[in-house]
Specification:
Elements (H helix, E strand, L loop, with lengths): L1 H18 L6 H7 L7 H23 L8 H20 L5 H23 L8
């Protein structure tokens, strides 16, 4: 349980630190990685959903046994990016930079699976 607490605390904390800054960098990202963002609803929608998941990771960290079932969709959240990006890269649709980000999510996915397996299904004691 201690392992799960630390995994989800670090995932949520580092995720918040990575997701908040892009809220203020839309124009800069468009300039650095043309073309400019033409669908801000997707950009901010992605950031919002991703930030919500970081908060969910912090909730899981607060009581891994209680929130163990939430670890399953948390794994799915990490798997979605970790699987899609290498496929897009293989098809020549994204740069290698994105493979690095996907590798980070793949690492979190492995840690989430370990946390799930090491977390008991219910609180001990009565």
């Amino acid at each position: 349980m201690r392992f799960a607490k630390w995994v989800f605390l670090l995932a949520g904390g580092s995720g918040v630190l990575m997701i908040v800054p892009p809220y203020f960098l839309e124009r800069q990202i468009g300039a650095d990685y043309p073309p400019p963002i033409t669908h801000p609803e997707y950009y901010y929608g992605f950031l919002g959903v991703t930030l919500a998941w970081q908060v969910m990771f912090l909730v899981i960290a607060s009581d891994p046994v209680r929130y163990r079932p939430a670890m399953l969709p948390a794994m799915l959240e990490k798997a979605g990016f970790a699987v899609a990006i290498p496929l897009l890269y293989a098809a020549g649709r994204v740069s290698g930079l994105w493979v690095g980000f996907a590798a980070m999510d793949a690492t979190w996915l492995v840690l989430f699976v370990g946390a799930f397996l090491l977390t008991p299904t219910e609180q001990g004691g009565g």
